[in-house]
Amino acid sequence: MRIQSIGKILGALPCFALLLVNPLQAAATVPHYDHIFVIVEENKGYDLIMGHPDWAPNINKLAHEYGMATQFYAEVHPSEANYIAMLGGDTFGIHDDDAFFCKQGVKNEFCAKTDTANYADHTITARSLMDQMAEKGLTWKVYMEDIPGPGSLVPAWPSASNPVKGVPNALYAAKHNGFVNFKSVNTKPYPELMQLMVGFHQLDADIASGSLPNFAHIVPNQCNEMHGRGGKDGDGTPEDCRSGNMPGLIHRGDAELGRIVTAIMQSQAWTGAGNSAIVITFDEDDGAARNAPVQGCCGYDPKSPANFGGGRIITLVVTNHGPRHVEDNTPYNHYSLLRTVEDAFGITEHLAHAGDTKGGIVSMVPLFVGKK
User: Fold this and answer.
1) Model confidence at 19, in pLDDT bands (50, 70, 90)?
2) Cis peptide before 155 (omega within 30 of 0)
3) Distance in Å from the first CA to the final CA of the chain
4) What confidence score (pLDDT) does residue 15 get?
5) How far apart are CA 174 and CA 158, in angstroms?
6) Confidence band, pLDDT 50/70/90 cuts, at residue 290
7) Alpha carbons 17 and 264: distance in angstroms, whole number
8) Which of 6, 47, 64, 143 is 20 to 30 A off residue 281, Cα-Cα?
């Protein structure tokens, strides 16, 4: 494998060397992982995060200490379908933020785009990572900050029709919870769903008790994931959650991210002998970056309204036993991430675009090399 050491070039100490991986000569396979934690942030392009280390000190520190994919892309704008792509390997024709129960012609507060031609059914019957894991006897759980109750299927909380005084609307947003779009999840018996779709109090409890699942998908609320809220005087939106306050919004999200990563690193799952990884990614880039000439990579179609690329975003891989100080410039996207998770759990089936090797989808091996 051809690797260049910046430390050697600049005379830095080897322990601070940053490794640049040649995408054509990466290691062959992803080793087995016991735990993978995927933390998703919102709507910030690569340059906005890496270009402002004072706004996002935790992300920048982790990027330099562990592994960073420097050419990672989302699939589409806006948010929802990117979350779906991470779990099913496709956007399934979705290119809006309508609720999971929306179908063409349905009129509802949460179904704003249903008059659009060729509108996609937002309940997906295709197989998902959750189906694959269940078949392998592996566990999964999605942790959504401020979900109004375990297993809740509400599209947003609070909402215009159900406001809460002093709390910004849509602090929890199901458009950032791709799990609810899959029929195999949203039709589960409620007692089972209550164990699988939970809030951050349960995340803290699972870390403390050592009962974390094999796969954990973690999404902070819209104030803490860098999305932000519109913010009107008296509506309960903190100043550093207002969408116009870019430094404050990013710094707030970065601080919450640091808290989550620190907690996971203190868990039994992290300190044990097995391989564990924390993946930090974003759903799509920011508005200012959407004029970039290239918006996607790997299994995408610039002419597709639902798979035209969601821009370049930062994605980090933090491992307990894996590589350090690595920059991987291989083109990746959320389909690549799904393929990598499948490989790491010994799942040989690659769903939809996750199996599109002709389209350039490859596993993120250099960032996941760990103990065999």
Assistant:
1) low
2) no
3) 18
4) 34
5) 11
6) confident
7) 26
8) 6
Sign of the alpha-carbon torsion through 122, 123, 128, 134: positive
* Domains of the chain and CATH, by start: 3-43+50-327+346-368 (3.40.720)
Distance CA 136, CA 349 (A): 11
Give a three-class secondary structure readout of 211-258.
CCCCEEEEECCCCCCCCCECCCCCCCCCHHHECCCHHHHHHHHHHHHH
Q: Is 155 left (phi over 0), alpha (psi -120 to 50) or beta?
A: alpha
Three-class DSSP category at 318: strand
The span from the CA of 176 to the CA of 182, in Å, is 13
Give, in order, the Cα–Cα distances in Å from 211 to each of 119, 204, 332.
40, 10, 31
Measured at the CA of 312, the angle between CA 310 and CA 313, to 5 degrees, comes to 100
Q: Tokens representing 153?
A: 């299927």
Q: Which residues contact 266 (CB under 8 A, 6 or more apart)?
A: 207
**Calpha distance 15→11 (Å, rounded):** 11
DSSP 8-state secondary structure symbol assigned to residue 157:
E
pLDDT (tens digit, 9 = 90+) per residue, 302-338?
999 999 999 999 999 999 999 999 999 999 999 999 9
